[in-house]
Structure formats: C-alpha cells, structure tokens
Amino acid sequence: MAQSFQNVQELIQDSFVPMVAVLCSEEAERVTNKNNLNFAELLRPFCRLTSEGHIRDPNNQLHIVKNLRICVNNVMTSSSAPSATLSQAQCRVLHDVVSSCQPHEGAVSNVVTAGDYDLSVTGKNSTTPWFESYRENFLKSMPASDHEFLNHYLACLLVVSSTEAVPLEQFLKLSQEQHRIQHSGEYTNPKWFIPNTLKYYVLLHDMSEGNEERANLSYEDMKQRYGPQGCALLKMNTRSISADNGEQIPDPWCQYLHANYLSNQCGLVTGNTAVVSPLLSLPFIYLRILGSLHSVSTATDGMNDAKGLETRVGGPRSHGVCLTLNDHEHIRQFIQEFTFRGLLPHIEKNIRQLNDQLISRKGLSRSLFTATKKWFGGSKAPEKSISEPKSTCGLLYPPEAPELQIRKMADLCFLVQHYELAYSCYHTAKKDFLSDQAMLYAAGALEMAAVAAFLQAGAARPYPTHYMDTAIQTYRDTCKNMVLAERCALLSAEILKSQGKYSDTATLLIKMTSEDSDLRSALLLEQAAHCFIHMRNPMVRKFAFHMILAGHRYSKAGQRRHALRCYCQAMQVYKERDWSLAEDHINFTIGRQSFTLGQPENALLAFRQILTNESRQTATQQAAFLREYLYVSKSLLETNDVCCPQLPLPCISSAATRVYFGHQRCQAEGEKQAATHVSLDQEYDADSAAIWHRLEEQLVAAANRGVIPVNFQPTQYCLNSQTQNLRQPLAVMEEPIIVEVTFRNPLKVSLALSNLSLLWSFSQDDAPKPEEPPITNEEELAPGVGHQHVEVTVVRGKQDLRIQGPRLNQTKEDKMMVRRGLDQRLSPIITPPMPLMEVFFLKFPTALLCGEIRKAYVEFYNVSGVALCGLRVVSTHPDFFTFGSQSTCRSPLSPTSENSSAYKTLTRAEASQTSVPADHFSQPSTVVEIPIEGSTLGPGESTQLPFWLRGPDQEGVHEIHFLFYYQNLDQVSKRSSHRVLRHTVFICTSRSLSVRASACVSNVPQQQLVEDGSTGGMLIFVDVENLNVVSQPCTVRQAAERLPAAYVIEDNKQLILEGQLHVALQTIGKEATSLKIFFPFVLQEAQEMQLLKFKSELSPPVVPSTELSQLVKISLHHPETYTHHFVQNSLCVVPVTLTLSNCAMAKMDVMVDLQHKPTSPESPDAPSSFTWVGQSQYRLHLQPEEVVCLTLRACFLQPGVYNLNTPRVFARPTEQAAMCENNQQMATPALIIINKA
Asked: Which parts of the sequence belong to the TPPC8 third Ig-like domain (predicted)?
C-alpha cells in the first residue's frame, strides 16, 4: 500500500506548484553546458524554499507560505491540441517509471496479521514505491488545460550571459520572443496564467572566463532599467574543469536528470515536423529512486540529441563539475530572491486585482461573483464549440469571462496555500459552471474545492467526498477524460486513506479500472487490495482476489515482475485452504512468469505444486500443466548442472512402502512343493504375526535351554507400516533386499515411466576413516540429461522415500503436538553370511479323512555356502505330524515304490496294514528336533525324511503353521544367530468312521475266565459307523481293539484306509464316541446317512408337512483335486455332476438356481470366488424315487480350496400347485482343491 514518507498535505502541495518558464540566450546555454546541464536543470535541485514566505490577502491579512516549491522548465512550444488521453510517449514514460522501481532482493517484508493469516507484504512499512513513483510522475505530467490554470506559467526567467556584447539587447530580444509565444496565437503550448506575465531578468556570469567588473556594471544598468526587484546577477563556474583538488562535491542533479531524460523521450519524434509533446511544457517529472534503476531505451534512433541525453545521465560527478559548494549556495539564494522579491509579490498583486474587479461588480445577480459576467462579457452567452451541445463538456468560455476570472483567483490562492479563500472561490465558480452546464469546468471546480476544503488547517468543514465523486463521474462519463478522472481519484484516495476510510478508498479505486489502460488498472487494483487488509476487520480473501486481478493486468501491461509479485502475495491466502482450482491457476501463472523472467527454479517449484496437489482440473488442462513442467525441467537440465532433480510425479505413498529381506524362493520341480515362507504377495495380518512370534519364542527357548535371551527380537522378513520398525532390520550379505514402492498418479492423464532404479547409499561402521562419504549408486544411474523425441519430452529425475514413523500418543506433550517415532525399515544393518535353507514337501496331501494317517516326505536343502545346525520345527498343530527314521526313508519319486501312496489295492490274501502308534503323534514338547544325520547340513547338501501326517478329528478346512529353525554352525555375528523358515498348509478333512464304545462288567464265571486265560471281567462293546456321505456304500470288514486300521471292500477289491480313532472310556456303562461334535448334529447327519445307505430297504415314506425341506436329496460329484495351467489359460472350468433324488412317493416339481453364492456355515474358511457357467436355472419334474443327474460347469480364476455346495434347490409336490416351493436342505460342504500347474 502506498504510504509515502510525505503526508497527504505535502503530496498535494508538491503536485500543484507555481510554474516558471525559462528563455536563455545561446551564450548563456554555453555557460551552463559546462556542467552538462541547461539552466532549468541547474536550478531544479534548489527549487524548494528553506524559509517561509509571506503574502497579504485581499483583506490585508498576512498569510504565511511554508515549504513552497516552484517548478522551472525550458519553454518548448507546440501547436498540438490538448488530448483527453495520454500520448504513447507519456504512457511509455509511466511504464518505464513503474518497471524501473522494483523491491530490493532480500528486503525485509512487512508481516500483516489478519485473523489466522500472517501475510508477508512486499515493501518497507507496507509501501509500494512503484505506485508512489507512478502517482508523482502522473500528477506532475498533467497536460495544461483551458478549464484550469494550475499548470499555466506565472513567470518567465530571461537569462543572458555577461559575456554578451550588449546584454540589454539580448534581454530585449528574449522579452519579445516570450511576448510573441504568448500572444501571437501560433502555439497552443505553453499556456500562460495571465496576460501580463512576470518577466525576471537574470545575468549569468561565468567566474572562470568572464570579467566580473563588467558583469557588475551590466547588472547596475539592469537594476536601473528593470528595477532591483525584477533582475538578478548569478555568478557560477568558480571551479575550473581541469582543477581536481580531491574535494568531494555532491551531485544533487542525478535523480532529477534521470526523470528529465525519461520525460524528454516523449518529445523525440521522427520526421520533418518538430512537434513537442505537451508533457515538456509542464511541471518537471520527479522520480524517487528506491530500487535499482534500469536503463531506458531511447524512443527514436534518428534524433541527434538522444545519445547526448543518455550521456548526461551518465556516471557519477558528470554534472556540476565547475560548481563549488559556494556556487550551490548562490543558486539557492537566487531562487529565494526570485520567489520573495518577484514571484510572490506578483501573485499577491494579481489576487488583489482579480478580487477588486469581482467585488466591484458584486450583487447584481445570483451569487457573489456571477454578476461580473455583465461587466466582463456583457449579456452574451459563453462561446461553445460548433460540434458540441451546450450541456456537454465542449462548452468554452472566452478568456475574459468572469467565471474564468474567479477560477484564476482560486488557483492563485491555492498555489500560495491560501486554502480558505481558494475554497470560497472554487465553491462560487462551481455554482456558475453548473448553471451554465459547463460540466468540464464544473468538475474541475468541484475537484479543487474538495481538495482545498481538506487542506484548510483546523477547519470545521468536513471533507466533501461527494464533490470528488461527482467530479470523477463527470470527468469519466460526461467528459470522457480519463486522465482528469484518474488525477481526481488518486487525490481522493490519498485523502480517504489519511482518514482511515479504507473501504471507501477500495471502492473508488476499483471503479477507476477500465480496459483502456492495463497499467493504471493494475496499480489501482493493487492499492485496493492493500486497503482491504488495512481495514479494522481485514478482508483477506478480497485482498487476495484483487491481487490476482492486479497481477493479471500487470501481465497484460508487460510488467511481468510486478505480476509475479502480486500472484505470489495472493498465493499466501489460497495456499492449503482447499481452493485447488485457484491454487492451480496461481501456480501456473507464477510458473510461466518466473520462467519468462529467467527464474526456472521458481517456475519448476510452482509447476510442481500443480502436479502434486489433488487437482480438480480436466484431463486436457492437466496435460497442459504436465507439458509445461516437462518443458521447464528440460530447459533447466540443459542450462544447469543438475545431477538428478526431484520429480513431483508419480506420487509415492511412503507409508505403504514394504521392504522384503531374503532371496527369491526356489521353484519346486516335479511333485515337490516348496515351503510357502514369506513373500510380498502375502498381506500382513496382525493375528498371524502374533502366532509366528509365539512359535519363534518357543524355538528360541528350546535352543537356549528354556530361556529366551534378553536381546531377542522376532524375525521380520517383510516390513510395512504395521510392523515394529523401531530397530534397524538385519540383512545378510549377498542376499537381495526388495523394496516395494506404491506409486499413485493423481492426474487424469497417463504417465509413462521407464528405467526405474533404486538409489542407495552404504556406510561402513568400522571404516578406518569416518569422514569418508558413503558409497552410493546415484552418480552411475542418474546422468541428469533430459532428451526429447517426437512430441515426447523425457525427463530423468528422482524421488526421495521419506517414511514417517507412527504418531506418538503416550505423554501429554505427544497428544498436544505432532510427534512421530522412528521407522527404520529403510535403514538395514548388513550382517556376515548366514546359512539359508529351503524345505520341500513330497506327496503332501491337501485332503484327509478324520483320523487318517498319510505318509509324505520332507526334504531339507542348504542353498547357501555356510553350514547349518540345530534344525528344529514347531507347529500350531503338534499332533498333526511326526518324523520317520532317516535310515528307513526311501524316495517316493519312483512309481513302483510301495510307499508311493497310502492307498493300496490288494487281494484279500495280501491284505496287510501299517500301524502307527498314537503316541508317535503325541509330542512330549511342541518343539521337535529334526533327526538329520550328524545334526548338521553342509553347504549345498540336502536330506530327506519321512513325514507322517494324521488327519484332525474335526472335519473342515484347517490352517496349519510350521516354523523351521536352524542356526549358523560358526557363530560369527553377534546380531543374528539363527534363521527361521515359515510354511503354512490348508488341510481339508472329511468325516470317516464314528466309533462308539461302552464297557460293562462281565457275567462270565471267574472259573471260565481263568480257564480262558483272561485277567479281567470287563466287556467292551464297539460300534463302527461310516459317516462319509460322499463315498460310495461300503462295508467295514475289520476293526482291531486299538483301531489301528480299517478295511473297506468295494468291487471285490480292498481299499486299505490307514488311520487311528481314539475312544476314551471314562465310566463303566456309559457310552463314549470318537466323534468330537455336538450330539444333535450327529443325529441329524445320521438320519441323512440312513437315506443314502439303506434307501433300497425302506418303505415308501409319506411326505410329512413338517419335513418339506427334505423332499429332494442333493449330492455333488466332482474330482477331489484339479490341476490347471493358469498362465496359459486364466479360466479353469471343471465339470461337476449334481444328483437329485426324489425321496418321496409323489411327483415333484424341482427348480435348481445356480446364481446364489452363500457362505457355507460348515466351512466358513472355504473361498467362494468361483462362478457357474452355462445355464443358470433348471426346472425338472421328478417321478417318485427318481434320480436325475445334471452336468454343471464351475469356473475358477485362481488356485485354492472351494466349496461347490452353492446351488439352491426348490421343490414342491406336483399335485399341490398352490404350495410355495420349499428350499431343500443342502448336504455337507463339497470341497474341491484347484492346483496351479
């Protein structure tokens, strides 16, 4: 905001000062040119009076004039008519003034606090020096107009050198020249205040070459002819040009001459006509230089003096080289003498004359001075232009019109700071102009009346804001004169700001914006924005909005630096406030402006913000943003030596980064199945992690005699945001570290990424020189050169992985502040080589019957170069497995081996069985030491052991975990002494046999027991029942007392099913069963089995109304396992047979629905991600006891264990058509195992 070091009163006084013209002889110009100055330029630094002046008003009251400044200009004539707009040259000067004044780099910004915003506003004390310079130059470059006299010349200095042959003759010639310019009518400029212009005669004496005595004689002649009050002798050039005594003489002309150089550019034109812009005949342009000055190019290459003007603004001490400090004082005294002895008395005299003329004609008409029209102009109406009606601004008064005499008197009073009398005259003239509908004159009177009212010291009259508003509206709308409207608005804005009326000021400035001048609109919008944050209740968002508007107009005006500054200040308000579209616009503009101004780093930062924020832009706009960023990045890489810049895209979800420590698992060959262990494909599960942690504790305790070491940390192969990452993980030499990074594209356009590499650095703890830099691969992987193909820009860069730890929430300070813990997942410690073991399983089943015993094989393979020992295993189901002897192990890979399968087809004579005692599956400890030969496994060695498995007693899908433990034979690492290997299997168990047993006291006589050799009198009754509803009807042939095996006969062949069922008899006379399920469930299932097993022996049942859900029996027939090559064909289709049996003696209407996919209550763990393909519904009519088979097809997308029992079957008796179809009860889960080939 423009808060000038001047107050408003000083600003207005310096904007309206008495004008003095200068006419010099050629010899006088030669004398002053020794100092690289003309006479007007010589006087300018000394034109402010240091002492007070005095005049007497028409009432003979003494009036003090303080701090008066006069303006001295050379007379430059022009015949051009005054314009209502600024010329191109004037606009170019104002443009250069604003452009040359920029904020200092590194300057301390002023912080404005508004609510929760702390805005950093450019400029010291919230000033905008570029606006101050523009305002001062604009006010002082106002063209002279016929409706006011403030810019008209009051006096003329006639300057002649003392070296002239006859100085008085030269004075006469200059006087006649001035008279001709003023009264001949040839020139429209310059304009003169009154016909009798004050002529002040100056004799210029050059002390270095002239005769001082002759000069004094000529001065005496001048005093006799012109009077002592009308002439002066000015001695100068005391110092010789060649003299250089080291005296430091100040140069007060530099800043004025720069502004003078700018103003003279307006007068440099090409062609034969020597038309001079009206700017040169007006008050001198002052420029306060607060920033660094930029060179200004000449307007025309064809003018001879353009280079001379530029030279005169040259280096230090190029002006006043012949002047001493005494000469400076002589010039200052000359200005004071001229003002006090000539100018002020002349003004006082004219005020009295005008006042006397007007007072003598008072009282004849509507106001104090209106009647003077009859004496000065008679009854004739004011003249007007032919093309303009009376009610427009084109109305013109003759010079002798009484209204203009009142305005002259008002302007004279205003120039000598007699504001009270000036206001009275302006107010009177305003009424007369309005009555004549002379709107241009009326607007001028209103404007100056308001200013005079404000400047009255101690006046009770308030500032008439409505005067200014009316004047601005008249200038702009009626007179179409934006220059005068802008001057009026600038003055009114400063007055309103001085009174704290920032809201009114902002409204006024915004109204003055238009399309005819982008520079003016930009400056006013910026000032309006500053007004919004200086209100009592700051309006921050309005500040930002108008700063953006100002930046846009600055950009249109070619002021890119100011445009960039405005957008940057507005960004403080919109940043991180969920105004994404506004942020994108501002950042995009900042990026373009910065790049144009040669600031590619700032441009890149702005474009980065657009791409990283959540954008709501369209895909087309986002693509444009991306192209801009890539172009700037490429340009920056080509010009700067940047190794590998930071890229904003794609976004990295650092918290989702996962780190895997370990080598790639070996692929199983043939029928081998590798241990599942840990992979990046597995999702983290906290419950499973706790299970593995507990199992590893058991292994470590067993290896350390039941004691867990204090420094024990559970092994973590895969680290993520949910794991414990406080300690640095351990990585083994020569083993890979896999980092999974999650990329996210926030844009709606595709991003093509190529040649991705992981950058790393390695620091050695025990390095001999700690100051050595860490080893890194960044220089090898990042050449840092962007290259462009056909319409495709490729930029190579990097992105840093910065992972924040979890937020702490333990103490009060943690809850009050945002504190985060450590996350060391990307800072591993490299340990010496460790053994690495692979485990393979052969003939490992995926389905078992309850209690079934199956023989498999397990192979241990040391794939590392380090020997291992201490091989142990622990499982969540210790009763599920046991190891056989290594000496009796025979490879199951041969198809002729008798151990190749647990199912054997034999003749009855060869029927035999393999018994596995129950205590083999009852481990004394949950940790099992694996019996390998020598208890060690050397590098590259492998061993194979039998692996006996027993089906769990409860049906369903069982998840079983194995954790293998092994140690390094040579303890070389203190941090890591063991390694573990995980394996998880899913076993699907089905019901087999149910054994019910009871014991009672025998009634056999004791003698018979002795004869039979028996020792007890106990009878045991055993009932064995087949509960497997999936298998075909079978008969139990034999059951031993310990139930080691059962023989099943089918098709004259024996299937030997090895297994163990345990029945614990606790009480005599009470029946016990081996089926560990609820009794009601057993009864229900037994009834179902009865239907399948003995259906041919049953009489035709009558369908009861209470069992409508058992009208039709359902069963599914399918392979137990199915292997498919999913890589070649992603769809696996398996044929399934659905068997429907009508259990009633009545006809049934049956509907089969394959679209339903419920989760089976018996097997909640079985996946259901498959679908039925083909016909989705079937409608059938079943005859009594009819069995129908439907061929279905199930489609699978991935390997797994699936429950196929999802079809819904509805049935009703055909004769009861009004009855609703009833959902038939489903059978037990039909599980199928899909394997990957």
From this structure: 984-1033
Region of 137 (left: φ > 0; alpha: ψ -120 to 50; beta: rest) is alpha
3-state secondary structure of 860: strand
- Do 978 and 965 contact (CB within 8 A), yes or no? yes
Tokens 């009703």 identify what position?
1212
What dihedral do alpha carbons 819, 820, 822, 825 form, nearest 10°?
-160
DSSP letters of 1067-1105?
STT--EES--S-HHHHHHHHHHHHHHHSGGGSPPPP--G
- The yes-or-no verdict on residue 630 having pLDDT over 70 is yes
Whether a cis peptide bond, with omega within 30° of 0, leads into 345 is no
CA–CA separation, 1191 vs 986, rounded Å?
A: 29
Rounded to the nearest angstrom, the gap between the alpha carbon of residue 725 and the centroid of all alpha carbons in its chain is 30
Place of tokens 């199945």: 673
CA 737, CA 757: separation in Å to the nearest integer?
13
Query: SS3 string of 869-886?
Result: EEEEEEECCHHHEEECCC
Q: Tell me the pLDDT tens digit for each residue of 556-599.
A: 999 999 999 999 999 888 888 878 888 889 999 999 999 989 88
Question: Looking at residue 921, what is its pLDDT?
Answer: 53
Report whether 781 contacts 759 (CB < 8 A): yes
CA distance between the termini of the chain? 77
- For 1235: left if phi > 0, alpha if psi spans -120 to 50, otherwise beta; the answer is beta
Residues in the chain: 1237
Three-state DSSP class for 901?
coil
> Per residue in 652-674, pLDDT tens?
888 889 998 887 776 777 778 89
CA 803 to chain CA centroid, Å, is: 19
pLDDT digits 0-9 by tens, 229-288: 999 999 887 676 555 555 667 778 887 775 554 444 444 333 333 333 333 333 333 333
Sheet of 1018-1026, strands arranged across? 1018-1026, 993-1001, 1072-1073
What tokens appear for 436 in the block?
Answer: 């004549």
Q: At CA 971, angle to CA 969 and CA 973, rounded to 5?
A: 135
Lowest mean pLDDT among 622-636, 890-904, 1077-1091: 1077-1091
Tokens read off for 664: 């790639």
Q: How far is residue 69 from each of residues 12, 13, 123, measured CA to CA in Å?
A: 12, 8, 28
Task: Check: pTM over 0.70? Answer yes or no.
Answer: no
* Secondary structure of 60-121 in HEC code, one letter for each residue: CCEEEECCCECEEEECCCECCCCCCCCCHHHHHHHHHHHHHCCCCCCCCCEEEEECCEEEEE
With beta carbons less than 8 A apart as the criterion, state whether 1036 and 1024 touch.
yes
Q: Which of 53, 63, 330, 34 is nearest to 203 (CA)?
A: 330
Return the residue matching tokens 């650095």. 761
Q: Of 886, 878, 880, 837, nearest to 857 (Cα)?
A: 886
The alpha-helical segments, DSSP class H, found in 416-458 are: 419-435, 439-455
8 A C-beta contact, residue 949 and residue 869: no
Farthest-apart Cα atoms in the chain, separation: 181
Q: For residue 942, give the H/E element and its range.
A: strand 942-950
Q: Token pair for residue 539?
A: 């309006």
